[in-house]
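writing this on my phone so excuse typos. first protein, seq and then structure
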Amino acid sequence: MVWVILSGWWFTASFFLILAILSDLFDGPIARKKKQDTPFGGLLDHSSDAFLAAVLLFSLSKTHDIPLLLPLLVLGSFLQYALDSKSLAGQKLRMSILGRSNGIAYYVLASICIFTEALGITLPGNLFIFCSWILIASTLVSMTERLWTLLKR
């Protein structure tokens, strides 16, 4: 994805992004239907989501001026999420509404950047920067909230 985005191959990037989103939408329900869902599978699913979001946002920091802080926070917040959920010890991940919303918003921001390029739609350049800073703020709030909850226990 990095190479495709940095090469400006926006239709190819759109295709790969659609494949990633579709596979993410269907892998969980398929695993649950087949009774093959496990805490490790959930951790692997969320890890791949966080890694892909960070890679997309890192690439888009070069093409759309997304602040580099955002993909770094995506990785940091996921690491915190995995550690304070004790998922590495085999427990299920503990989700928060804000964390889940942020996870979706990372993909929405990346999708808008990629799909508008593929379709030749021009949006104000500062829109991506503005949205990025909102996501940075909400990610920091989410991380603070998780830390506060952990310390209260």
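second protein below, same order as before
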Amino acid sequence: MRGRARRNREVNAEINITAFMNLMVVLVPFLLIMAVFSQMSILQLNLPAGQTVEQEEENKPPIVLEVLIYGNRLEIVDRQTGPLKIVPNTAEGYDYETLVKTLKAVKNRFPDITAITLLLESTTPYDVLVQTMDSVRVTTQEQDGEEVQAELFPDISIGDAPPDTSNKTSQSTTAQEASA
């Protein structure tokens, strides 16, 4: 009886890895192809300081650029002197071409300045923020008959825009006209 019990326990089982190998043959190329398309781009942003830092008159830059993003326009502003240009929206949305042209003119006048602050309303869509960041950071220009990318203002800071007072004054004027 002992011999018979031992014979039943010894079973030669082979591991069939064919299905596993088929899975690997399909899965590895798929993962390699997908890895190429899922590249991540990291853009470093400088957030404005919580407290105002007093700068000495000597260290003061000649221009401190800000782009205010409102629902109906973009405003290009020098924090020290005031508005440089107000770019109203077109029928398609924000007018990034005029924004870039104006920033190119500013860059030609102040080539050493690389910092810009984007101030936006809390209701500004994320896509608008990204498109504005792309517009103020890099532009294309022609050099030796070829189009090359040139930096405009790569050091971007983000903050909250001041309340839009031009909308309220136009709304109150419209309300006064309607009541008259």
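Residues 18-37 form the longest helix (20 residues). thats all i got for now
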